[in-house]
Amino acid sequence: MLSVLRTASKRPLWQATRTISTSRFLLQKPPKDGKPQSILTDDMLAKAGMDIDEPTSKDIPKDEATDKTTKDGKSGGKSKRVRQTSTEVKRERYANWFYIFSLSALSGSALYLTRDWEENESQELKDKVENGYVPSLMYQRFKLRFNSMFTYFQEPPFPDLLPPSPPPPYQRPLTLVLNLEDLLVHSEWSQKHGWRTAKRPGVDYFLGYLSQYYEIVLFSSNYMMYSERIIEKLDPLHAFISYNLYKEHCVYKEGEHIKDLSKLNRDVNKVIIIDTDPTNYKLQPENAIPMKPWDGKADDKLINLIPFLEYLATQQPNDVKPILNSFKDKYELPEEFEIRVEKLREKFNIEQNQKINGNWALKLLGVSSANSVTQAANKFPLDLIREEGEKNYIRFMKMIEEEKQKMKIQQEQMSGQTFTLKDYVEGNIPTPEEQMQKQVEKQKEIDAIFEQQKKEQEQ
């Protein structure tokens, strides 16, 4: 007994639990039936709040071990009940209440989703299932409402990705949606240089020339944080590209990001998309002009599309899909369109020659078919359209160059005009009216400097 107490006294004070062994060698009663028994039973020790060490196999006689094995085996003996502390009992009770509450909440929510349609809900859902508390109708309403909860993560952030079209005098007849990656630019990564982006030959001319006919929308297949800088370099003045869209504006369906043209707030019949990935336009394939991905090598495939796109815009069709689908292979659309143009040109020339040669009045007047005035009046219509388009493009680019020079002068003039914290504290900041007047005066100075530089360049 004294040896047990001495051993217990040597244990550290930080050990909060006390352990007493109930082996047959400690605190024994006189032998009963030849078997020593402990004075303290397990129930007494448990009520005293002590942890009980199970007797090891060394402390249990072979006969007792055999009896225990027989009881725990298939003979149907009862296993020993595991004792729990008050804290464990509370935890188990709270867990049971939590499971009951969660199950009740889920059941209530499921029943709430089966209710009849309300006025503020989508009309599209109402048209699919009628009202009524029939099990089949309730299940269908539950299914539709449950699925609509996840459309928030599948649809674009706004129902209309573009603002309304401008008034008719400034409105373009058609909308041209262009992909960025592997169509206008190509990006590569190398260990030596890292990421490098190459601009396709003719991109500036392609965008500048077609901007007079189309509302150009650049729809990148990448996220905004990666594509925004590239787009800024393509069109720093925002003169050619009307709007920019990114991967965030795609529709997410079946694990794929799709560019849904019906979300553009434009008439889908007057929208054309040029892309290198069929997945991007799988919802409106009839509106697409597919192209193979550009690998970074110089080519003229982008420039070859201009004649067809120019012709299509000048015709102002009510629906572009029948015209696009009239081509057998859209990948070879520029070549097939060129063949059609040559046939029309030959037919046009034959008709013009017949008119001139068959006009006896011109012969009596001595006007030959080679007269320059007659030839100018009888030019092929597509040639006239192209000449007018080139003139407008030259004027437009000249105006852009002038705006660039003005912006450069403005940056030089405005670079020194800043307000310090002292000005804000002392109230030396001019009023909005004074600031507006200074801006008008500064703009006049910039225009005068620009005109002076322009005259010097002409001389």
Automatic annotation (TrEMBL):
Q: Which domain of life is it from?
A: Eukaryota
The protein's UniProt keywords, in alphabetical order, are: Membrane, Mitochondrion, Mitochondrion inner membrane, Protein transport, Transit peptide, Translocation, Transmembrane, Transmembrane helix, Transport
Where are the residues of the annotated region Disordered? 51-86
The Basic and acidic residues compositionally biased stretches are 55-75
Which PANTHER family does the entry link to? Answer: DULLARD PROTEIN PHOSPHATASE (PTHR12210)
The family note in this entry says: Belongs to the TIM50 family.
Assembly information from the UniProt record: Component of the TIM23 complex.
Protein name (record): Mitochondrial import inner membrane translocase subunit TIM50
Q: Which organism is it from?
A: Maudiozyma saulgeensis
